[in-house]
From TrEMBL:
<keyword id="KW-0464">Manganese</keyword>
<protein>
    <recommendedName>
        <fullName>protein-serine/threonine phosphatase</fullName>
        <ecNumber>3.1.3.16</ecNumber>
    </recommendedName>
</protein>
<comment type="similarity">
    <text>Belongs to the PP2C family.</text>
</comment>
<keyword id="KW-0460">Magnesium</keyword>
<dbReference type="InterPro" id="IPR036457">
    <property type="entry name" value="PPM-type-like_dom_sf"/>
</dbReference>
<dbReference type="GO" id="GO:0004722">
    <property type="term" value="F:protein serine/threonine phosphatase activity"/>
</dbReference>
<keyword id="KW-0479">Metal-binding</keyword>
<feature type="domain" description="PPM-type phosphatase">
    <location>
        <begin position="49"/>
        <end position="299"/>
    </location>
</feature>
<dbReference type="GO" id="GO:0046872">
    <property type="term" value="F:metal ion binding"/>
</dbReference>
<dbReference type="InterPro" id="IPR015655">
    <property type="entry name" value="PP2C"/>
</dbReference>
<feature type="region of interest" description="Disordered">
    <location>
        <begin position="415"/>
        <end position="436"/>
    </location>
</feature>
<keyword id="KW-0904">Protein phosphatase</keyword>
<dbReference type="InterPro" id="IPR001932">
    <property type="entry name" value="PPM-type_phosphatase-like_dom"/>
</dbReference>
<keyword id="KW-0378">Hydrolase</keyword>
<dbReference type="Pfam" id="PF00481">
    <property type="entry name" value="PP2C"/>
</dbReference>
Length: 436
């Protein structure tokens, strides 16, 4: 199932503003920092799956600074170089895009934009090394009860809440299942089709040419073309105080198991045993045809000695619940004025899967002046006054002025244009040179 974003900001229609959720969290009896257990399992076929797990990341020196956790899966292809590079550099690139001295709600509000900048910078820096491997990424940041997921490719992250409801927190960027991405790639100059064999028959999944990649978004893949973009789908949610279970897995799991099957096969098991059971069932179903990696994370109240286990599935709950409960802005304002009694539900704060960099770097936030004026919004280098290029430089919208920020340096502007098909990508340029 593909989860696609369309909302333009944290306070979009029907969504609960981040500041409202955080005030509830701090003012109610709910916990601010839950306990967490996690488990990891992997069966390797190609040696191209990598994971990143860090439970004590420093958020910064701002007001109320605390630690946050990161769990990520990198599924490499055409070699492991891109997966290794992303594992070693992505988190730092994300954090460099967040100004220091922010309090918690400001930090979390800045995170979706910083994830976009960090993904694009990591891709740009790796491509500068002229290596041709690529990687999918599913990157999960957990700060208190707020979970933020950024994803490119076909590794996935799902959430099961305490009542047994299933939420899809990532997107699937396989060309076979995402028609919007097919249209984007072809409009940017790529070709999409299946492999041709003798007699004109077509076999296998849809692929992008040149290169033959089945995905429309990844980090790396210099030989495919820059219309295969690193701009991630980002979803940010707030869990109820009861917590829930996250499953983060490479496509070796999802090619064999449905979301519901993965949850069912490990229900009642602790995270380490759950991850092992998911991988075991995936390999049993399809054989070890690909690297198969799974991270299971349980989030639960600290006063409990073990995480809450979801109850057995009720009749009629077989249909995936991938739509979030959303409060209206009117009800949110009303509850702030008095006592607030909140049911155990998962609430959406933010979602956007747009491929347009200008949209992703120019979101509205609860505070002003969050980002430095004369710094490239992607690579964070200083730009002298008058030298920066607005991310809206080629915008046809009358609602923005092209001289307004955020600003890009010359190099990042060239990257933006290549991703949007406004200039030949490096792969197509090499193809044209070879034909001449």
């Amino acid at each position: 199932m593909s989860s696609r974003g369309g909302s333009g900001g944290a306070s979009g229609d029907g969504m609960v503003p981040l500041g409202v959720l955080l005030k509830r969290e701090l003012s109610s009896d709910k916990i601010e920092k839950p306990d967490m257990l996690y488990g990891l399992a992997n069966h390797s076929k190609k040696g191209e799956d990598f994971t990143f797990l860090k439970t004590e990341c420093q958020r910064g020196a701002g007001e109320g600074a605390t630690t946050f956790c990161v769990f990520a899966v990198f599924d490499g292809h055409n070699g492991s170089a891109a997966a290794i590079y992303a594992k070693e550099n992505l988190l730092n690139n994300i954090l460099c895009a967040i100004p220091s001295e922010l309090n918690r709600d400001e930090w979390l509000a800045a995170l979706p934009r910083a994830l976009v900048a960090g993904f694009v910078k990591t891709d740009k820096d790796f491509q500068d090394k002229a290596q041709t491997s690529g990687t999918t990424v599913t990157f999960v940041i957990i700060d208190g009860l707020v979970v933020t997921v950024a994803s490119v490719g076909d590794s996935r992250c799902i959430l099961e809440s305490a009542d047994g409801s299933l939420y899809v927190l990532s997107a699937d960027h396989r060309l076979d299942v995402n028609q919007e991405e097919v249209e984007r790639v072809t409009s940017c100059g790529g070709e999409v089709g299946r492999l041709h064999v003798a007699g004109g028959a077509e076999i296998g999944p849809l692929r992008c040419w040149p290169g033959g990649l089945c995905l429309s978004r990844s980090i790396g893949d210099l030989d495919v073309g820059e219309f295969i973009i690193p701009i991630p789908h980002v979803k940010q949610v707030k869990l109820s105080s009861v917590g829930g279970r996250l499953i983060i897995s490479s496509d070796g799991v999802w090619d064999a198991l449905s979301f519901e099957s993965a949850l069912d096969c490990c229900r009642g098991l602790p995270p380490d045993a759950a991850a092992n059971q998911i991988v075991k069932d995936a390999v049993k179903a399809k054989g070890l045809r690909d690297d198969t990696t799974c991270i299971v994370v349980d989030i639960f109240p600290p006063e409990k000695s073990s995480p809450p286990l979801a109850p057995p599935k009720k009749q009629g709950m077989g249909v995936f619940k991938n739509m979030f409960r959303k409060k209206s802005s009117e009800s949110s304002s009303h509850h702030l004025e008095g006592d607030y009694i909140e049911p155990d539900i998962v609430e959406e704060i933010f979602e956007d899967g747009s491929s347009i960099l200008a949209q992703r770097l120019d979101l509205e936030y609860p505070i002003c002046n969050m980002f430095k004026l004369f710094v490239c919004a992607v690579c964070q280098i200083e730009i002298k006054p008058g030298e920066g290029i607005s991310v809206h430089a080629n915008s046809k919208s009358g609602r923005v002025r092209p001289w307004d920020g955020p600003l890009l340096c010359t190099s990042c502007q060239a990257k933006k244009e290549a991703m949007e098909g406004e200039k030949p990508s490096k792969a197509l340029s090499r193809k044209q040179d070879a034909s001449e």
